[in-house]
Amino acid sequence: MGSRLGASPAVMRDASAAQTQGVAERAEGCEDTDPLERIRTQSIDHVLAELGSGKGGLSSQEAADRQQKSGKNLIESAKKRSPLLAFLSNFTHLMAILLWVAGAIAFFAGMPELGVAVWLVNIINGVFSFWQEHRASQATEALKKMLPAYATVIRDGQQQKILAEDLVPGDVMLLAEGDKISADARVIQSSDLQVNQSTLNGESTPSRKTADAVVEDGLSAAEIPNLVFAGTSVSEGNGRAVVFRIGMATEFGKIASLTQNMEAAESPLTRELNRLTKQVTVFAMCMGIAFFLLSMFVVKEPFASSFIFALGMVVAFIPEGLLPTVTLSLAMAVQRMSTRCALVKKLDSVEALGSTSVICTDKTGTLTQNEMTVNHLWTATREYEITGVGYAPEGHIEAEGRSWRAVDDADLELLLEGGLLCGNARLAAPEAEGGRWEVFGDPTEACLIVSAEKGGIDRTELEHRMPRVKELPFESRRKRMTTVHALENPVDGAHRIAFVKGAPNEVVRLSTQVRANGATVALDEATRERIMAANDAYAADGLRVLAVAYRPLDGPRADSDIPAAMSDYDPDTIERNLTFVGLEVMMDPPRPEVAAAVAECHRAGIRIVMITGDYGLTAVSIARRLKIVEGEDVSVISGFELAHMDDDELKRRLAGQVVFARMAPEQKLRVVTALQEMGEIVAVTGDGVNDAPALKKADIGVAMGVTGTDVAKEAADMILTDDNFASIVAAIEEGRAVYSNIRKFLLYILNSNAPEAVPSAVYLLSGGAVPLPLTTMQILTIDLGTDMLPALGLGTEPPEDAIMDQPPRDPHERLLNRRVLVKAFLWYGLMGSLAAMTGYFLVNMLHGWTPGMPLFGLGNDGDPVYIQATTMTLAGIVFAQIGQVMNCRTERTSVFAIGLLSNHRILTGIVFEIALIVFLTVFPPLQGLFHTTPLGWQDYVFLCCIPPIVFAVEELRKAWLRRHQSARSAKRTPSES
Hints:
Layout: H1 2-5, H2 9-16, H3 21-27, H4 35-41, H5 44-50, H6 60-70, H7 83-88, H8 94-108, H9 112-133, H10 139-146, E1 150-155, E2 158-163, E3 172-175, E4 184-196, H11 198-201, E5 207-208, E6 227-228, E7 233-245, H12 251-260, H13 268-297, H14 303-316, H15 322-338, E8 342-344, H16 349-355, E9 358-361, E10 373-379, E11 383-386, E12 397-399, E13 402-404, H17 410-421, E14 426-428, E15 438-440, H18 443-454, H19 459-465, E16 468-475, E17 480-491, E18 494-502, H20 504-509, E19 511-516, E20 519-522, H21 525-540, E21 544-552, H22 571-574, E22 578-587, H23 594-603, E23 607-611, H24 616-625, E24 634-638, H25 639-643, H26 647-654, E25 657-661, H27 665-677, E26 682-686, H28 692-697, E27 700-704, H29 710-715, E28 718-720, H30 725-751, H31 753-765, H32 776-786, H33 788-794, H34 818-846, H35 864-887, H36 895-898, H37 904-922, H38 924-930, H39 937-976
Parallel strand pairs: 9-23, 9-26, 19-22, 23-25, 24-25, 26-27, 27-28
Antiparallel strand pairs: 1-2, 1-3, 3-7, 4-5, 4-6, 4-7, 8-28, 10-11, 10-22, 11-12, 12-13, 14-15, 16-17, 17-18, 18-21, 19-20, 21-22
């Protein structure tokens, strides 16, 4: 692949050898150097020579020859799994295989009705799961969509528009505002060129690009100011750039390759269900063997009868309803989450959220509003605060206990006017009520417009009164921008003025005067130190600071060396002897609801790790404001530091409070991998192309729906429709509820296994003296009939109030643990068994049987009393389960607290199972199949007493547990205080 797609120096030297022998000689000593480093550090002439190109681009023939060697500029797709295999995978996992086997056993045991029922459960569940997940991740296809179809280049000395896929190394691209960039290229000409690189670095602020060589160390690819990359776009200005990498060799292509080759993490639920399947299989087989041996050697049943009896017991102990319940529980959670601004693409991702122990989140747009806002203004005479956040001009300026307008203070007015005029951004009001203001251009300049409008300045009127006549664009070397304006009303006697905006240290260095109380005075050292102290204090809080200054270009205060003609204006002649006006201080404000969500995460035992493309000081400031980190023991790790850190050191730092800044895509992936190796369940948020590998690697990838790229959305498991961190916390709550509901279902299903097994055990241990109180078909009636709907209702229970007060589930904690088994078999199962066997013996007693006498039906399956007794056993288990399904709804909370009748699906299930029992006992064709007969009114009186007794006993136990827990907490509190 490398030889076909790459842009390696060797290929370039081969391609240009016919043009110049000297190129290969100059590059000979560069074999082992990083081509990216070499391209950025060399002069334009050297870069063009090494690439065998020139400012006039390539010839058409040379481009065609190079394409034969380097291939087309395309993002290649990994081989995808066929839809058929994806469909079949829903029927070949461990639990599905167990159900196929259970159905086959039923056919073998002479119960085809049961076999068909079990297989239908499997088929319906598999189809439903496939339908829910058929739109799974297709990240590479989304990557392709982001690349433009055409590019403008210079070939044969002429400007041409070509297909982007036909770009080759050495092509000179023309870049204009709005263009998408189609390949990695070195800038060779720039006129205020600004590029939106949010797809690569996750930051919305455009990056300014220069044609100068860059030798600074410690820069990530996206930080290099003389390089542009495939998949980004030109937000402002124009320029030219020479292509040096195409296709899969680009930064964009590397991310595509990384995403394609990334194995999606298996969800905790999938791992746990596989483990549970093995446990259930072993348990069912052991029970089958035990019952076979008892039947053979205690009751002396024939081998065939014993074997069929044992097979029936094996099928009875397999929870056929587990898969449908898990699927329904996940699907219901997905529906609830959609109302809370979270769209889930894969069902098992819901439970993975509930297991989350670490959230790796970016900053911009997720924790913050992605709307730069000026919140402070500073002049030599006073400091102002500005209320309101975002690009909507809503808020006001405050100082000294009152509101201020621009006209109230000449220094304030000049500061706001200078900030507004010295910029090129535009704002558009939302088309619909409640919509977002749209920014065109640099967000930093946009927020200066908003601050001026909050001060009462009308932009249209100001630009009419002070029209721009000249611009000296921002350059990274100068770190400032200047605009020249004609004045309707003179300032300091001047009719022409230059406003300068830029880095405070640079502006202050070039200033000789300062504006104070409406007058211009000399800038002494004490004032200079005050300005820089204010700047340093704001910067320490992670705020961005811009300084504004001006210079009269005519009139009594103008310098004599100012050129007469505007065409002669340049930075060297204009940007000096400035008059400092003030500082505009801004930040991307945190979302107001995030602080509460972060506090809830901490309460729930979930760690938050910020991984951002922004600078460390800004990142840690936001992290402190939101209390993601607290205290002084906080590590700030840059991408450059991480590149020189081994895995052991990284894991050591991850054990404490840490913030990651200026991260490259593969570094974010490395952090996620390290956390997973530490045993954490990791959720990752992201919105850019750079986030795709980490989103796919994470246990749960969360993409932004509003600002996120298609790539991030396709690589993720969940999409936030409001880009809000608080929605992640709501989704985690739903995920925890899913796991809790699956365990409730498991508890409910297993507690019916004990009363199903006890009658058979009584029959076997009595040596047949007690006729079998429950037949195999009656057992399966419970498993696939009466139990199913109430169990599915448990899968739809909403989260309990205290669910977020618990720590994340221990990854080593089993779904089927000792507590569940004890509660299911020795508590709930015991109550159900007593109810069932009491009903069995009650029927016998009502027909004259007394202890010591042989039971009715002994050796005669056609005895009507025996048939009524087995029917009563079946009904006793079912009515006990009515009480138990209510008991299983909560762990310790009283069911009355959540509403006894609040879950209508459970109530529907209860009605269904009562109706089914009645139907099985009165419908003649089914009476013979299921060994049933109609029950009398005395029987129903007894049955109706079972649910309230079972329910009341458990409510008393829960009340005792709550009191016991409260007493322990009360004893612990004084000592802790």
